[in-house]
Amino acid sequence: MVGVALIGCGHWGPNVVRNLDALPGVEARVLCDLDPRRLEALRPRYPAARTTTEYRDALGDPRIDAVAICTPVTSHFEIAEAALLAGKHVLVEKPLTDSGRDAERLVLLAERTGRVLHVDHTLVYHPAVQRIRSIIDSGELGELLYVDCVRINLGLFQSDVSVLWDLAPHDLSVVCFLLDRSPRWVSAVGAAHLGRVESQVYLTLKYDDSLLAHLHVNWLAPLKIRSTLIGGSKRMVVYDDLAPSERIRVYDKGVVLEGEGEVGDRNRVDYRIGDVVAPHLDESEPLARVCEGFARAIETGEPALNDGRAGLEVVRILEAAQASLDRAGERIRLRPA
Amino acid sequence: MVGVALIGCGHWGPNVVRNLDALPGVEARVLCDLDPRRLEALRPRYPAARTTTEYRDALGDPRIDAVAICTPVTSHFEIAEAALLAGKHVLVEKPLTDSGRDAERLVLLAERTGRVLHVDHTLVYHPAVQRIRSIIDSGELGELLYVDCVRINLGLFQSDVSVLWDLAPHDLSVVCFLLDRSPRWVSAVGAAHLGRVESQVYLTLKYDDSLLAHLHVNWLAPLKIRSTLIGGSKRMVVYDDLAPSERIRVYDKGVVLEGEGEVGDRNRVDYRIGDVVAPHLDESEPLARVCEGFARAIETGEPALNDGRAGLEVVRILEAAQASLDRAGERIRLRPA
Amino acid sequence: MVGVALIGCGHWGPNVVRNLDALPGVEARVLCDLDPRRLEALRPRYPAARTTTEYRDALGDPRIDAVAICTPVTSHFEIAEAALLAGKHVLVEKPLTDSGRDAERLVLLAERTGRVLHVDHTLVYHPAVQRIRSIIDSGELGELLYVDCVRINLGLFQSDVSVLWDLAPHDLSVVCFLLDRSPRWVSAVGAAHLGRVESQVYLTLKYDDSLLAHLHVNWLAPLKIRSTLIGGSKRMVVYDDLAPSERIRVYDKGVVLEGEGEVGDRNRVDYRIGDVVAPHLDESEPLARVCEGFARAIETGEPALNDGRAGLEVVRILEAAQASLDRAGERIRLRPA
Amino acid sequence: MVGVALIGCGHWGPNVVRNLDALPGVEARVLCDLDPRRLEALRPRYPAARTTTEYRDALGDPRIDAVAICTPVTSHFEIAEAALLAGKHVLVEKPLTDSGRDAERLVLLAERTGRVLHVDHTLVYHPAVQRIRSIIDSGELGELLYVDCVRINLGLFQSDVSVLWDLAPHDLSVVCFLLDRSPRWVSAVGAAHLGRVESQVYLTLKYDDSLLAHLHVNWLAPLKIRSTLIGGSKRMVVYDDLAPSERIRVYDKGVVLEGEGEVGDRNRVDYRIGDVVAPHLDESEPLARVCEGFARAIETGEPALNDGRAGLEVVRILEAAQASLDRAGERIRLRPA
Fold first, then answer.
1. Mean pLDDT within B202-212
2. According to the model, what pLDDT value does residue C271 have?
3. Which of A237, A253, A275 to mutate against chain D (most D CBs within 10 Å)?
4. What is the residue-averaged pLDDT of chain A?
5. Closest alpha carbon within chain D to C265
6. What is the structure's pLDDT at D194?
7. Measured between beta carbons, which residues in chain A are less than 8 angstroms from residue C224?
8. Is the confidence at residue D156, as pLDDT, over 90?
9. SS3 sequence, A70-87?
């Protein structure tokens, strides 16, 4: 039986512990939060768990094998490092840390201590994202041309960081998972329409060849949009996460250039327009699968999608984007991972 | 009676001459195109007009007072300059020219010769855009925060230039008209997925304060999208040009920060969510109003929305964007107009 | 303190008891279901409640003042009658009963015993429906012309009755609440595409003047639609319950007939097309307000929207519709209530 | 060369003559309308055609082989009969006539005189409708369960008749073409919200087995909707004629009943939910294909989709629906065709 402690019982933590506790062989044993009212609210569901306001207390508990860290991002590194040093397996809410250097230290520490370090990039386990990945792997999209992500709405849901560090990790984890390679450089522009942190950011990732990824994240939009376009030379995918059904549509559409010459020569351009297919997606809860992956990695040691290196990659891109933001959009080269 | 010559009878020219000829006091008298088949196709509608394959022929005709230039963009400067020198009033299809220097020379030449120089920024006369401008002028949006434009589809409709010079002029003319000020700097990233010219471009315009405008133009998208979001501190506007009705919606939505402190303090954030209003728009054809504005300017000398300076401003931004594209997204400062 | 028993702990019952128990001055004291597993699943949330598989056991409990009946519709009458005879207040899941005669007996019995009899027409308390009612009351729609309801999807959610008795009560309760009058006659056609009961029904209600209401309910539709159109002579309302936002839109649209003569004379027809307004709706949970209304009626004796007579009216229409279905669409006159 | 006369140059007639005249071997030779201004407006496009205000003049012209009748429906019979008697082939705008008896007389007269009698049921040639028919023919929908048509908007486009005779012919021609059988009975309810003729009608067609077709036609709706749902036991089709793309979607969805027993037994119900496919449709203009079919029938004598019998079937249903409307929804049996 894997004993689990939840550290941070705010917005997301209760979902994580519910999914962990529901797994066979996993049991919630400690609930930890600075705010005793949150502990009180959560306790009735986990009668066997004890509560504490001191996370070091949880780390010192020999009945605890693993901790889920769902605290504000600025505290991730400190708690995760202490947990790994205490010999615990660690699952951290996204993003892994607020600096690439810290993320790297955690990854190395986990490798050294032989503990599992995972990050909760929930969307990676979304049935739509999994399906898009398998469509890409099948080659049916042809050469990948671009990924365009829009994640905008009215609302500052996570508020100790800017919209970049709050919303972009979702799309970056998806982009990294789908493209399976590192960008060459990153640039970002944004604006702090309220207070000092950015509430709107446009982020560009440039890969080798002509592949491009672009994100628009915005807390001050009148509409809620969660869309991802994936352009391929043969087919294209639209993923609308708010569609009531048919969240993914695969378009058999493309442009074919005939013969020699420049695009400007209209005679050379031919369009291919075929059917649109919306594959049926299963309804599994992505967070449940994140937790399964974490539990399986603890049990078997086999690496999972959301391992520390995946978390590190997202943090490296965020950090580069922040540097670009701070220099008004300057291009920031990423050193090879 | 104002005698008009149409130079360039391809895709857009026939629409322009139809709208000009329909105006009281305006008559189409010369049709000019390199391709005699186009002339033949158009002639029956304008029995009084003569046709020619040589634009200088049209410019030399004393019965011609004004010319509409609907040729490929690379030829705009040469023809417009010759027309102004020949004492003709000039209406040019967007963009005005393919270089800022040339655009400036045309503007100065028109001022010197006292001829009207207009550019066909059709969207500026769209009832939706006119309405948004009057909403902005009324102050009901509060402080302007951003304009976000998406103009994507599958198709290379105008093909002698990149997607930047083909599609972005539409949105840039709208952004310039709505914001009524010049950006401080411009940056652009893009990719040439087909041939040598860019088929996808992301373009950022940075203004004083935190105002931001951003465009996504793309010839290789599976969906056709024509949307503009305008964020204000009090209200926001969504303009969806493809909506079958309710093309503009005004959202009485916003975020209010209470008291002191940083955005991160959730207690400080309050949302205001009120009604959504879709104002009724009249159905007038924008191009007809462009042509009216041109004819009125000829008659009265009064300046119109789409004058040469408006055309120059769009070209200056395009040119800066192109420079940024060529240097992988480098920020390009615009000197004051 | 009002002690409550829940009878029937299947799909909907747990929601009802959760909302009742959350009210100040109301406490869940007995949970009753034929299936002990359901009792076991629900018990942990209501540690103070005892469980039983015998509803007469609940009715005999002197600590119980009110019962919520969430059993299959065929059992509603028997249980509700016994509860009223035992001196309990009664809240019944929709529809009130499966026969008009039984519904009438319950209404009379409640009046005789001075107990509260309510039916859970949840939608009547939906913020959208409440708002539409106040729009109608304000007179801004002009004369009411029609109500058109579509409630279709793939799925047999409630399966002991036909789609008429399963889905139509939702819309009928809304139609009765909005129109606040009784239809003169009812007709219905349908088809039993699966098994013996109807899985698709079209239902027409004819009122005095030219007012018409029409429902389409269908368990075998590829799309999920929940829409209500309300046509008025001055304005019209569209209520789309599945819209992510702007569930109600009020259209300032209409046809005006000028002068004398028949509609056929085109010169007489004029259209009025103005703005569209989507009023902001509050987010209150309708079922919570149903339960509040029930508790307040118990406390104060004041009548509420969902009283027994409202339940009876819906059952009378359903019964007439069933009679019409059984006679291939014959018009069934409703005697005055 | 087939010489054609257009009788009725109002809204639709100019489209018909344009498509006829564009066919090889067909020439517009006479234009006829009571209103000389319409003739004047149309004449420039057909310089070789003469104009007249007297239709008998057109029928007496030996250079005329065929007439297209686009006059108000009440005049269809008189003109079509005279045309057939004069030995002309006849294409009539929908509906064929305003009475079944007259429609039948035309069909018989055409057979007797050996002339072609066609009705312009344009939608039957729509690529979407043709595709749905081939999907049905392939058997992939399984057993047909229902067809549900909604055709509503604000506007009295055709105004000499009620909404039944104006809008329903479109859907009835599609329903007849798709189902390829006659309904057993028809019923209709409606309301005359303006003037004396119905402006809103619900129409039900009952076929053998449990097959049902239903139409909602309405001139007083705030939204424009053109949708057709086709339910099959294996798959279902949604045809949204106003969708900017993907007008047809085929849903691999259904309900499977396992084992014995009634629908009410939830354990028996199983859902099958697979992919959704939107087949690509070609862009051909339906009216051009209607005209082609007419010209081919003249040339070869081979029967076409929109022959007189197809027109008669639609009129018979309309007439039965009108009888039902006049008797408040009474079921009207159709005698076998």
1. 94
2. 79
3. A275
4. 92
5. D159
6. 78
7. 244-245
8. no
9. CCCHHHHHHHHHHHHHCC
CA-to-CA distance for B237 and B136, rounded, in angstroms?
Answer: 10
Q: Which of A250, A276, A281 to mutate to test the interface with D (most CBs of D within 10 A)?
A: A276
**Chain A environment of B218 (Cβ under 8 Å):** 146, 148, 231
Q: Quick: pLDDT tens for B239-263.
A: 999 998 899 999 998 887 766 555 4
Q: Which other chains touch chain C, taking contact as 3+ CB pairs less than 8 Å apart?
A: A, B, D
Residue type, position D94, single letter: K
DSSP string, B72-127: -GGGHHHHHHHHHHTT-EEEEESSS-SSHHHHHHHHHHHHHHT--EEEE-GGGGSH
Report whether pLDDT(B157) > 60.
no
Nearest Cβ partner for D280 among A249, A273, A278? A273
SS (H, E, C) C86-133: CCCEEEEECCCCCCHHHHHHHHHHHHHHCCCEEEECHHHHCHHHHHHH
Q: What is the DSSP letter of A43?
A: G
pLDDT band at A196 (very low <50, low <70, confident <90, very high): confident
CA B19 to chain centre: 18
The pLDDT assigned to C221 comes to: 94
Question: Which chain A positions have a beta carbon within 8 Å of C244's beta carbon?
Answer: 224, 242
Residue range B311-336: mean pLDDT, rounded: 94
What local confidence, expressed as pLDDT, does residue C268 receive?
A: 61
Q: Is the ipTM of this complex over 0.95?
A: no
Nearest alpha carbon to residue A15 among A61, A68, A52: A68
Q: Which chain A residues have a beta carbon less than 8 Å from that of B146?
A: 191, 193, 200, 218, 220
pTM of the model: 0.92
Residue B108 neighbours by CB distance under 10 Å: 14
- Interval D234-251 mean pLDDT: 94
Give residue C63's region: left, alpha or beta (phi > 0; psi -120 to 50): alpha
> Cβ contact (<8 Å) for B197 and A271?
no
pLDDT value, residue A302: 82
Q: Which of D90, D89, D54, D92 is nearest to D73 (CA)?
A: D92
Asked if B276 and C273 come within 8 Å (Cβ–Cβ), the reply is: no
Distance CA B176, CA B147 (A): 11
Q: Is the pLDDT of residue B266 over 60?
A: no
- CA–CA gap between residue C324 and residue B170 (Å, rounded): 59
Question: Which residues in chain C are closer than 8 Å to D218, comparing Cβ atoms?
Answer: 146, 148, 231
Contacts of B246 in chain A (CB under 8 A): none
Residue D215, pLDDT score: 98
Confidence of residue B102 (pLDDT cuts 50, 70, 90): very high
Q: Which residues contact C55 (CB under 8 A, 6 or more apart)?
A: C7, C32, C79, C82
Interchain CB distance below 8 Å, A280 and D252: yes
Residue among B252, B273, B278 whose CB faces C275 most closely: B278
Confidence of residue A267 (pLDDT cuts 50, 70, 90): low
Contact C244 A245 (CB under 8 A): no
Q: Do residue B279 and residue C275 have CB atoms under 8 angstroms apart?
A: yes
Interface mutation vs chain A, best among B220, B233, B246, most A CBs within 10 Å: B220
Contact C16, C291 (CB under 8 A): yes
- Contact in structure between D59 and D77 (CB atoms under 8 Å): no
User: Is the Cβ–Cβ distance between B136 and B144 less than 8 Å?
Assistant: yes
> Which pLDDT score is estimated for B304?
83
Angstrom distances, CA of residue A186 to CA of A314, C108, D11:
12, 75, 58
Cβ–Cβ under 8 Å, residues B258 and C252:
no
Min Cα distance C166 → chain B (Å) is 34
H/E stretch holding B293 reads: helix B286-300
Residues of chain D found within 8 Å of residue C192, distances taken between Cβ atoms: 210
Q: Are C294 and C118 in contact (CB under 8 A)?
A: yes
